[in-house]
Amino acid sequence: MATFYVIYSNSIDTFYAGSCLDFEAQLEGHQKNHFKKGYTSEATDWNHFFLIQDIPLDTARRIEKHVKKVKSREYFESLKSDPKIAEQLKEEFQTRSSR
Asked: Could you give the CA distance from residue 74 to residue 84 in angstroms, rounded to a whole number?
């Protein structure tokens, strides 16, 4: 099962959304600048901000794509503050993957 995640860097005051099968290893990669040409290479102080865990990988990828299209600080903050949004995302993108 996979994880959709949003991480935050205080030093550059920005969010990053992604999906993966092993969140702890992925977060460590972001923190240790493993993705040298990636967006997260600008900082090493990434911390988890929001997670949706134990979902199918295709669902996590669809949620990631949706969230990256929205790309809004307010939206990232609303994900964390309103648990209903996570449930709605899981339902909407799980349904799409079943079609």
From this structure: 15
Count of alpha carbons within 13 angstroms of residue 68, beta-carbon side: 13
In the block, which residue shows the tokens 């990256």? Answer: 68
Beta-strand runs (E) in the chain? 2-9, 14-20, 46-55
Q: Residue 7 pairs with which residues in a beta bridge? A: 16, 48
Q: Is the torsion defined by CA of 26, 29, 34, 37 positive or negative?
A: positive
Please, what are the averages of pLDDT over each run of 10 residues along the chain (99 residues)?
97 96 95 83 94 96 95 93 95 71
User: Helices H, strands E: what count in the chain?
Assistant: 4, 3
pTM of the model: 0.90
Nearest to 48 by CA among 34, 33, 31: 31
Q: Which of 30, 38, 96, 43 has its CA nearest to residue 66?
A: 96
